[in-house]
Specification:
Layout lengths: L1 E5 L6 H13 L3 E6 L14 E4 L5 H7 L6 H23 L3 E4 L5 H14 L2 E4 L12 H10 L2 E4 L2 H9 L7 E3 L31 H4 L1
């Protein structure tokens, strides 16, 4: 099976890497369509191919200055050419399925998502079922989930939440999140330590942790 795996902003490139590698080991032909990885060196493809289609100019520049006030303008200028490159590359690949991992700009991304869905099967993984910062955009996300032929969630509560939005049960699949092997030995924590990972946003509850 030919699979196009899409992560437009390379939000979860390590996750994409493990997924693409596992699919390749099962004999599938996989190409990861992503952006330059903003957090260090990307993992070397293992049995699959990776093409950088999104933010190819602004990505390397912003890696050196990730908090630059120009980052949104730079990405905005590159957005439309990036979407066009994606559609052209998918046409060239002619995959059996397109598996989309994230929609960083859902109000815009759903346009190319619809274009892909008209050409063939599209799977969307809802890593964050309904982002808290998007609670006022329920109709937008309902449109996204309805456009995809199948939506993958990582838990039963996530599935129930999408059912509550009116998504058809047959369009939902639960696939638990993978646990990746640790790199080297892991020492137990000592002293007074708090681990908080992910983006620092109000919805993450850092104030409650402290």
């Amino acid at each position: 099976m030919r699979i196009a795996l899409v992560d437009p902003a390379s939000y979860t490139l390590p996750y994409d890497h493990h997924l693409a590698s596992a699919l390749a080991r099962r004999g599938h032909d996989v190409e990861l369509l992503a952006a330059p990885f903003p957090f260090g060196s990307p993992p070397e493809p293992d049995g699959y191919r990776r093409s950088e289609l999104f933010f190819v100019r602004s990505g390397p520049l912003l890696r050196r200055s990730p908090r630059s006030p120009l980052r949104f303008a730079a990405k905005g200028i590159e957005y439309l050419p990036s979407a066009r490159r994606l559609l052209r590359r998918v046409d060239e690949l002619d995959p059996d399925v397109v598996h989309v991992q994230w929609l960083p700009y859902p109000a815009l991304d759903r346009r190319w998502l619809r274009a892909l869905a008209r050409k063939g099967p599209v799977v969307f993984t809802a890593h964050d079922v309904l982002p808290q910062r998007s609670e006022d955009r329920v109709e937008l996300w309902r449109d996204v989930f309805s456009t995809a032929h199948r939506t993958v969630v990582h838990s039963e509560p996530a599935r129930e939440r999408l059912l509550g939005l009116g998504i058809e049960p047959g369009k939902l699949a639960v696939v638990p999140h993978a646990v990746f092997p640790a790199r080297g030995a892991v020492s137990p924590p000592a002293g007074r330590s708090l681990l908080f990972f992910g983006l620092i946003r109000r919805s993450k509850g850092l104030d409650l942790l402290i």
